[in-house]
Structure formats: structure tokens, C-alpha cells
Amino acid sequence: MTTDTLATAPHGVPVLDLDPFSNELLADPYPYHAQLREAGPVAWIPKYGFFVTGRHEQVHQVLNDHEAYISSAGVGLANFNKEPPFRPKSLILEADPPSHTRARTVLSRILSPRTVMHIRASFTQEADQLMDGLLAAAQAGEVVDGIARIAEVYPLKVFPDAVGLGSEGRENLLLYGDMIFNAFGPRNELLLRSAEKVQPVTAWIMAHCQRAMLRPGGFGDLIYQAADAGEISQDEAPMLVRSFLSAGVDTTVNGLGNALWCLATHPQAYAKLHADPGLARTAFEETLRYESAVQTFFRTTSRDVALAGVPLPAGSKVLTVLAAANRDQRQWPDPERFDLERRPTGHMAFGSGIHGCVGQVVARLEGELILAALAKRFKRVELASAPTRRLNNTLRALSSLPLRLTPA
Amino acid sequence: MPVIHLIAHDGTAVPLQVPEGHSVMQAAVSVGLRGIVGECGGSAMCATCHVYVDPAWADKVQPALPNELEMLECTSSERRPESRLSCQIKVHAGLDGLVVRLPATQQ
Question: CB–CB of A208/A245 below 8 Å?
Fold first, then answer.
């Protein structure tokens, strides 16, 4: 997959002759992020022909200038003005105002802080039950896989419950999410492998976006109620349910998995959290900065535009590296330090601007509740053996996280 | 540069220099003020940058848009007529001397 905007490197722009979507760099992106930040505010990736930016200031700027850096031409490598999208375009993610605004208004009302107040009790109960269920294993000294038993369990229970899905087939949500997030990258081996099951998985997803499959009063049904009220069309409703199912699970699974990894590998930080479980929300926020689940997103320039003085022609793809911005020393003192005492707000893990993650309040709730429930029950959380990684073109994900939990 | 006066919940007055075009939230967070959180980074999505605008300044601050009004229903401290999200208050020369009070809690 190439963009043919420019056949050669633009004059004066630093060139990074590497493949950000190679297995090697996906497995350990941090040295490349440092190289990117130091090369300049903007660099060029000749392998695919796109611009890339990793400093906080420029990432923030691009994400907040939605007129110059649009989403309707796709937020992956593919330019939807030149080639068909992997799946029908998202009405919210891959849209610009004014159509974006209508969709966004509906979803942000459904996922608002007010909604979160209503679901806090049930989400808390689920977190408590999950952690209580691990006490016996912990007492017996068994290894607990933080991915299989926590990170993949909790978000697959609470969020689809809130959307109003039945209990069967929820593993499809993980397969679908993996595929969609791979599809923001090039058509490499990772994407081809995850798309092997694209037909049956997509069929399951689309069937479960229909009103009849969704519990009345759940988040999914609330989208249909917005259609009833004329805010969006009835045809648009299943597409917005699809957005919840695409973006609402694989992201939080990895957010939680990465949070557990951060704490297991930073015992002093975990000790602070155990001593004061009220730090759970702040701790989760720092894990979002330090080990961001969603690493990158693209934009497309709608016109000739200059970024930090670098001219970008119209129709250029620009990769914003959220995770690199999150360790930019220009924004964060001592950014390589995982520090529960810093103020991580302002990080780019949920993006920024009109496309900033619409589900972020729900995501933070899940993170806060799981980390609090963990911290109240276990005085130590340690790696039992090396974790294994699940490579994805966009997500930072683990496939296993063997932990030893010591009950308090 | 305009100066905004934040009155913390305990009554302490904190004068804050705010560059024109910046929001009150941005300025507060950049000096590490604890009474304003701004979890969502200024996108009117979290209601944790809640402030009470002094009545003398009520009509000088640009009115709240519908999305802000909806968010104000979610504040952890009491919502009052003078409640605003400080990320939506963009400072300009005409707001030099603005007084806002911080609520008891943001979360």
C-alpha cells in the first residue's frame, strides 16, 4: 500500500528509512519514537510515502485542526479519496463536520459522565466479583494470566452488557477489533492474518447491530431512540452501534492489560497504589500516557498546509504518533519514568479535539474500578514469567501476562 | 497579559496570568493548580474543570454552547447558575481581572 502524493522525499524534511509497521518496531517502538521526536517536528517515511509527527505540540495541533487535517479520507494509511475503505466508512471516526457532528452528539450523550454515574454501581460490582474470583488462585500461589483472567474478561462483560448484547459470541468483538485496528495500517501480514475470518466475524457484528438484538434501554438501543427522534436516520443507527462494538472493547482490553503490566513491572508504584487505592484513577491515567493502547492515527491534508514550517501538500497522509507525544520531554519532565505522582492530563492516548475518544469516560471508569479492586485485595502484583505480545498495526497489546498476586 | 483571579475552595486567592486565546483550565493546569483537573484535556467531555464565575463577570464571558450546558449536569459539586467549564472560557483582554471560584470537588 503506498500513497503516491510524492515520489521522493520532500526537500528539507528529515527522512526516517524504517517501517513503523514492521514486527520489530511494533514489538518495541520506543527507540523509534525517540528517533522521531529528535529528528524534527515532522519527518518522512519513504517506505509508504507519508509524513509523521511525534512531538506533543504538533500531534496536538494536527488533531485540533480538523479542517486542514481531515478524517473523511480515512484515519489509516489508505486514502479513501483514492481507494475503497476496508469496510463501509465509520459515520463518526471517518467523517468530518457537519455529518460527524450529528453522529458525535448522539454518541457523546450516550457515553457522557451522567451515564457513567448511572453505571458506576454495576461496573463496580463486576470488578469486585472478578477480583474476588482470583483470591483463591492467588492464595494457592497459582500464576494468574492478567490478560486471560482480567483484561479480556472485564471489558467483555461490562461494556457489551451496557450496550445490550446477549452473552453468546462476544469473542467476536476481540477478533473484529483486532482486524479493524490492523486495517489502519498497511496491508501487511498482520492485517491479512487477522482478516482471514473477516466474513463470519463481520456478519456476527452486523447482525448484532440490529435493534432486535439489543436490550431496550441499553447504549445500543439509545442510538435507535435517537433515530426515532430524528437526530440520525434509521439506516445510520446500526452503523453507530458498530462503532461501539469496534472501538469499545479491544481498546479497553489493552488499556487494562497495559495498566497491569505497568504496575507489575514498577513495584514501588504498585506499593503506593496498594497503600492508597484512591490513587487508582490517577494510576490508570499514567498508564495511558506511559503505555498507550492506541499508538497512532492518520489524518489526510485537505489543502496545502504548513506544520511547524514544513509544507505538506494537499492529499498527504500524516501519521500522528500518540504514544511518542506521550513521552515527549518537551511536555513531560522525565517522561520515561512511570510516576503516579505526576499529572498525566494532556496526554494524547485518547486523541484530542472533535474526534477525541467519545468513550473515554467509560474507559476511565473501567480502569479506575479494576485497579482499585486489585489494589484493595493484593499487596503485591508481580510478573511470574515473561509476558507475550500480540502485534497489531495500531494497538499496543499483550497476549499473555503471567502474574503472581499476593493477597493482602 | 490578562490576569485571572482563581479563588480556591479554602478561600486562597490565586492570580493567574493567562495568554490570550488560552482557556482558564489550560492556565490552571499548567501551573499545577490542584483544584482544576481537566481530565479530558479541554474537550468538554469530563466536567472536571468546573468553576463558578463571579456574578460581576457573568455577562462578559462568552455564553456556554449546548454541549457545555449538558456537561454541566455532570459536575461533582453543586451546579449553580454561574457554573462553567473552565476549558470553554477562552481568555481575551476584556477578561483581564476575571474572578472565578473553585468548587469543593471535581470528581
Answer: yes
Encode pLDDT of A74-97 as tens digits.
999 999 999 999 899 999 999 999
Identify the contact set of chain B against chain A, taking CB-CB distances under 8 A.
Answer: 29, 32, 37-41, 43, 45-47, 67, 70-71, 73-74, 107
Residue type, A149: R
The alpha carbon torsion through A159, A161, A164, A170 (nearest 10 deg) reads: 80
Numbered residues of chain A with Cβ closer than 8 Å to any chain B Cβ = 105, 108-109, 112-114, 117, 281, 285, 343, 345-347, 350, 352-354, 356, 358, 360-361, 364
The 10s digit of each residue's pLDDT in A182-232 is 999 999 999 999 999 888 999 999 999 999 999 999 999 999 999 999 999
Domain that holds residue A188: 23-407
Nearest CA in chain A to B37: A345
A362 part of a folded domain: yes
Domains and CATH numbers, chain B: 3-101 (3.10.20.30)
Give me the CATH number covering residue A313.
Answer: 1.10.630.10
Q: Is the pLDDT of residue A295 over 70?
A: yes
User: How far is residue B20 from each of residues A10, A144, B4, B35, B86, measured CA to CA in Å?
Assistant: 35, 53, 11, 22, 14
| Torsion A255-B44-A351-B6 (CA) sign | negative
- Flag whether A235 is in a domain: yes
pTM greater than 0.90 (yes/no): yes
Based on the structure, what is the number of domains in chain A? Answer: 1
CA distance A363 to B55: 36
In this complex, do B107 and A281 lie within 8 Å of one another by their Cβ atoms? yes
Nearest to B50 by CA among A358, A367, A113: A113
A348 to A104, A268, A353, B90: CA distances (angstroms):
19, 25, 10, 21
Residue A381 inside a domain? The answer is yes
CB-CB neighbors (< 8 A) of A113 in chain B: 45-47, 71, 74
Find out whether A221 and A211 touch, Cβ atoms under 8 Å: yes
The string over A38-52, giving b where at least 16 C-beta atoms fall within 10 Å of a residue's C-beta and e elsewhere, is: ebbbbbbbeebbbbb
Which residue type occupies A242? R
Is residue B34 very low, low, confident or very high in pLDDT (cuts 50, 70, 90)? confident
Q: Pick B74's closest partner by Cβ from A113, A346, A358.
A: A113
